[in-house]
Amino acid sequence: MATPPDSPIEEVVYELEPARAPKPIPVALEDLCRLTKFTRQEIRVMYRGFKTECPDGVVHEDSFKDIYAKFFPHGNSSLYAHYVFKAFDVNCNGSITFRDLLVTLSTLLRGSVYERLRWTFRLYDINGDGCISRGELGEIVSAVHELMGRRPHQPDDDRKAREQVDKVFAKLDLNQDGIITIEEFLEACLKDDVVTKSLQMFDCL
Questions:
Q1: Pairing mode, if any, of strands 95-97 and 131-133?
Q2: Opening angle at CA 68, ends 180 and 50, nearest 5
Q3: What is the tens place of the pLDDT at every residue in 57-96?
Q4: For 66-174, where are the E strands, in sequence order?
Q5: Same structural domain for residues 106 and 137?
Q6: Long-range pairs, 142-146, Cβ under 8 A, ≥24
Q7: Which of the listed residues 52, 96, 162, 199 has the most CB atoms within 10 Å of its CB?
């Protein structure tokens, strides 16, 4: 029998309150359709897979890192996975629910270039203060290098990483004040054909 459009998907979302056990809250399929660009059928399929892999209804950072490690077995994916996890963890509570996952995937796979860039900015803004510093950009670049199998603290690799950071930072920091705002990030990236084309690769997914 088909599931009624407004029936809840049995997602477990937790409200964490002091001295109380987590309280599961069902999320309606209709709400997930409204929040994302996925169809009801696509959400049902993804939910079945999510529940199989995450029977507790949430993904914690250790499990998230394990998933990344399987995709990048030749590098150290732990640091980069940590930053991506933080960007997925929209409620900043140390766990990713099916709703969190679905909303972010909708942005990355079906969102506009503008929406994807805003998510990318959030990934790079490690401390969440609304701007990207040279240090934050350097941390992400180093994490990507480790992800791809490059060893840290090697003179040549460190030099190349610094050069890459300097080049990218100069390109994004339009007024050269030492920080990259969301406005600068969007303006610089939207003018860059390479960035735009790389983001359009998601369109076929």
A1: unpaired
A2: 105
A3: 899 999 999 988 988 888 899 999 999 999 999 888 999 9
A4: 95-97, 131-133
A5: no
A6: 142/79, 143/79, 143/80, 143/82, 143/83, 144/80, 146/75, 146/76, 146/77, 146/78, 146/79, 146/80
A7: 96
Flag whether 120 is in a domain.
yes
pTM: 0.76
> Quick one: 103 and 145 in the same domain?
no
152 is in which domain, residue-wise? 113-204
**Overall number of domains in the chain:** 2
Give the C-alpha separation, 183 to 188, whole Å.
9
Is the CA virtual torsion 155, 66, 82, 115 positive or negative? positive
Each residue of 114-147: b (16+ CB within 10 Å) or e?
eebbeebbbbbbbeeeebbbbebbbbbbbbbbbb
Angle, CA of 153, 163 and 82, to the nearest 5°: 55
In whole angstroms, give the CA distance from residue 29 to residue 42.
11
Q: What is the mean pLDDT of the chain?
A: 82
The domain boundary, picked from 110, 137, 153, lies at 110
